Amino acid sequence: MTNNRQLRIAIIGAGASGIMAAIKLRQAGHEDVTVFEKAHDLGGTWRDNRYPGITCDVPSHAYRYSFEPNPDWSRVCSPGAEILEYVRHTARKHGVEGLIRYDSEITRADYRDGKWLLESTRGSEGAFHAVITATGVLHHPVYPDIPGLEDFGGRVFHSARWEDDVSLAGKRVGVIGTGSTAIQIVGASVAEVAGLSLFQRTAQWVLPLPNRDYEEGEKAQFRADPALVESEYLRLTHRMNTTFSAAVVGENPKAYDQIVTACEEHLATVRDPELRRRLTPDYKVGCKRLIMSGDFYTAIQDPMAELVTDPIDRFCAQGIRTADGRVHELDIIVIATGFDTHRFFRPMQVNGPGGQTLDQAWSEGNQGYLTVAVPGFPNWFMIGGPTSPIGNFSWLLTAEAQFGYIRQLIDRISEADVTAVAPKPEAADAFNRSVRERLPQTVWATGCQSWYIDSAGNIASWPWTFDKFRNDMDQPVWDDFEVSAG
Ligand code: N01
């Protein structure tokens, strides 16, 4: 490397991965780093999702930054508010809170003369040598196309737009959807509601996930011996990556069979055969993101709960009318119908050097090079870009691996005689071809509808093992990149 130049670097998104990128860039000696955040607080998904029962179903000792071990997790799988506080604490401790420009949603990026000119909802934000997007994939709520929403006389909102003055206690509550979110809401609220109607379009496989509090003695041991925290991290990440994550991509049939058996035995605990039948999915375990829950089946068998499988016809003043003509009277409706995973950081307009927009590049689906970059868009790097390991993987682990790779690309453009790096189109084509060839081996392609696959058949998640991902993220294959000299 010759005569390093100081770079201006923009990070878009102050969620868990944007905070990590800011910390690591500062640690690598980059002084001029700005984090743009559309909201008025950090935390991303853990800020936006505040529904009752919100928990990260990836065990906490694996869902943490490698550089910020935490001996004090309250539970094996900790509540969302605790994770938000952990992200906030990490940002504060590593001194990056002051780098965040809040209420600044980046709306446009134009590449000119080796720099990205950014515009936000506040106006021009200046020019940056490199941009790292860290916007996550689960942040554009999807609302169902069901008529009559405005007719409903009670409170209605999306699970990711929880209205904080609302309490479910003593209310007749309707929950639409049966994804991970809805299942957590049902488990957490059935004991306090006056009635809970779960509107199911598609049954889900549910893996029993015992969740328990860590005892004070265990936390004290973790505190006294950092090596214990580390070995728990390594044990959990190794187990997740070699069993579950390998199973869904067809690499560990034995583990897959064990997961199937665990789900089937779990379902068999539902006592009423008719309810059990209605809760039985007609697709393979893992095709949709697997639900992890130790309390859902208990909750849905509670006398206060009702599983509604007649399709929803419309909202009405009293609640929801189903196709059988029945009106389900409700005080509150929670729309837990998920997110548009494929929108990424759009509606932002990203205009590359040749006049090509990212919308044009992605007109047939989001495709990049090795999850982190897109041909024709130099110095535009993505954490959680297309085909990243998502779903039941640990997002923080993925994000750190991607950052390690991006950091090496940034090192390259720090060299005095280099202005830009971008993947070669043929390298991206080869990568995307290999993704398509690989997809049929995964359980995601076995015939179900899920947010993993877009309308054009592109897969949103990494179709190989996590070990391969980590290896591929280890260092760039420089032959796959165009490196422009200034
Ligand atoms: O959303 P989803 P989510 N009428 O897309 C149904 C992460 N997460 O918010 O299957 C009726 O999974 C839809 O039905 P169908 C995790 O990655 C993590 O629950 O399409 N129903 C489905 O049941 C997760 O996967 C944690 O037929 C309609 C549901 O809505 C992701 O977030 C916790 C409908 C949507 O399920 C998204 O989960 C929570 C309609 N018109 C979430 N439209 C952790 O613990 C849709 N549905 C880490």
In a few lines, what is going on in this structure?
This protein has 486 residues and is an alpha/beta fold.
What does this structure look like?
- There is one protein chain.
- The model has no long low-confidence stretch (mean pLDDT 96).
- The strands form six sheets. The chain has a five-stranded parallel β-sheet, covered by helices on one side.
- It is of the alpha/beta class and 486 residues long.
- The chain has 13 helices and 21 strands.
- It has two domains: 8-140 and 340-485, FAD/NAD(P)-binding domain (3-Layer(bba) Sandwich); 149-212 and 246-335, FAD/NAD(P)-binding domain (3-Layer(bba) Sandwich), CATH 3.50.50.
- A hairpin with a 2-residue loop joins strand 5 and strand 6 (123-128).
- The chain is globular, with a radius of gyration of 23 Å.
- The relative contact order is 0.15.
- Helix 1 packs parallel to helix 11 (395-414), helix 5 crosses helix 6 (226-248) and helix 6 crosses helix 7 (253-267).
- The chain binds 3-acetylpyridine adenine dinucleotide.
- The site of 3-acetylpyridine adenine dinucleotide has 29 residues, from helix 4.
- 3-acetylpyridine adenine dinucleotide is lined by residues 55-58, 138, 144-146, 159, 176-182, 184, 199, 201-202, 289, 312, 336-339, 391, 449, 451.
